[in-house]
Amino acid sequence: MQEQTTQPTGEPNPAVVTIAESVRSVQTDLADSTKYLPGDTGRNARILDRLSEELAECAGMLRALPARPQWQRGYALAVEGALRTAVAAGEDPRKIAERALARLDGEEAS
């Protein structure tokens, strides 16, 4: 059975909208990057690595759709996707979250 992508009020599901916008953004950046290939190979490889990480996060968000509460906000899925990407890269997600929270605390204090 296909998951409902709109709320009963007819408004789009925020999580699906977030995923679609993220994929569109990567698509645009990828198309732009073709103008500079091969160019500075180190720089362009880092850009393509970043875009592949963003797509991996989108894939994680898509995988999370059926198991999440129906109208969970997209930012929560983005955080989960980022942490899944970190785990796949062998990183400790708790340390990443701690560093991110510390940076946020520092920004709020400023």
Describe this structure as you would to a colleague.
The chain has 110 residues and is mostly helical. It has helices at residues 14-33, 41-64, 74-88, 93-109. Helix 1 (14-33) runs antiparallel to helix 2, helix 1 (14-33) packs across helix 3 (74-88) and helix 2 (41-64) packs across helix 3 (74-88).
Task: Explain the layout of strands and helices.
Blueprint: H1 14-33, H2 41-64, H3 74-88, H4 93-109
Helix pairs in contact: 1-2, 1-3, 2-3
Summary of the model, kept short:
With 110 residues, the chain is mostly helical. The protein contains four helices and no strands.
- Tell me the number of structural domains: 1
Residue stretches low in confidence (pLDDT < 50, at least 5 long) are 1-8
The percentage of residues in β strands lies in: under 5%
| Structural class designation | mainly alpha
Q: What labels would you give this structure?
A:
mainly alpha; globular
